[in-house]
Design brief:
By secondary structure, this protein is α/β, with parallel strands linked by helices. 44% of the residues lie in helices and 14% in strands.
Length: 303
């Protein structure tokens, strides 16, 4: 069965170039009506121009699809609300949000200006939160929604010189975890995509054969799976160069050491047992940690 998006309305942020553009084109090609959002700024977030988004809209229309451009900044909640309303006024609904907009201000943490830290967090995290908040009531009302966050291996595992970007990217996973739980009753599924792709964010860093393998096109199938009506929820899907993996935030079985004077020393001595991964689980929600800890305590005291 071909994955069909006929009758669906999608918003893709940061869709004026790179991965976002390919996301928008793929959704449109499979029948979705698409809002192409892009501030049209430089890689560091400076400047703006509506032409980037409009060019992608023109591409979609030339191929027989339906699209509209938006130059709203994802950091401006009122502008984002107006963009969502524009889509609803034109097409009656919003089914899919792909939070893809982002900027880079790379520097080692020692040399990083805190204004650059804040701006990167504002675009990636607050941008995703603003857009998700703006579509949320519409998705609740229609009992249908698919939200894709864009996380990163930098957020999941770290990368030198990207403290701001990594913090913002893992924060999107935290946002996803709770929105997936809160959205479940209204059939709103929320997932995260961790792409590895050669775009203007990675230009000049890698040799040619590697760049060829890391075509951003290779990431798009993962986005389509997460945006489709058959999507999972609370999944972190990694994609790049034709390979697909999943990342999990797990919790180990750990140990019960109780409360007492010598617990710090015992914990230090037995830390390897606490961090051992045999029998680890992916908790279904934040309360699981407390349940496991209280369970160990009750068991130790014979309750």
């Amino acid at each position: 069965m071909a994955m069909d998006f006929q009758g669906r309305v999608a918003i893709v942020t940061g869709a004026g170039g790179g991965l976002g553009r390919l996301h928008a084109l793929a959704l449109a090609q499979r029948g979705a009506k698409v809002v192409v959002n892009d501030l049209g700024g430089a890689l560091d977030g400076s400047g703006s121009s509506a032409t980037a988004a409009q060019k992608v809209v023109d591409e979609i229309r030339a191929a027989g699809g339906e699209a509209m451009a938006s130059a709203a900044s994802v950091t401006d909640f009122e502008a984002v609300q107006a963009m969502v309303q524009q889509a609803v006024d034109a097409w009656g609904r919003v089914d899919i949000l792909v939070n893809n907009a982002g900027i880079l201000r790379d520097k080692s943490f020692a040399k990083m200006d805190m204004a650059d830290f804040r701006l990167v967090v504002d675009v990636h995290l607050m941008g995703a939160a603003n857009c998700s908040k703006a579509v949320w009531p519409h998705m609740q009302a229609q009992n249908y929604g698919r939200i894709v966050m864009t996380t990163s291996s930098t957020g999941l595992y770290g990368n030198f010189g990207q403290a701001n970007y990594g913090a913002a990217k893992l924060a999107q996973v935290g946002l996803m975890q709770t929105l997936a739980i809160e959205g479940a009753k209204n059939n709103i599924r929320v997932n995260a995509l961790a792409p590895t792709a050669a775009t203007r964010m990675t230009a000049g860093l890698l040799p040619e054969p590697v760049l060829e393998a890391l075509k951003p096109e290779a990431v798009v199938p993962a986005m389509l799976v997460l945006a489709h009506e058959s999507a999972p929820t609370r999944t972190i899907l990694c994609a790049g160069a034709g390979g697909f993996e999943a990342a999990h935030i797990t919790m180990t079985e750990g140990l019960y050491l109780g409360i007492g004077e010598t617990v710090p020393e015992e914990l230090a001595a037995r830390l390897a047992e606490v961090t051992a991964r045999e029998g680890e689980q992916v908790p279904g929600g934040g309360s699981v940690q407390g349940q496991v800890e209280v369970g160990k305590a009750m068991q130790a005291h014979g309750h």
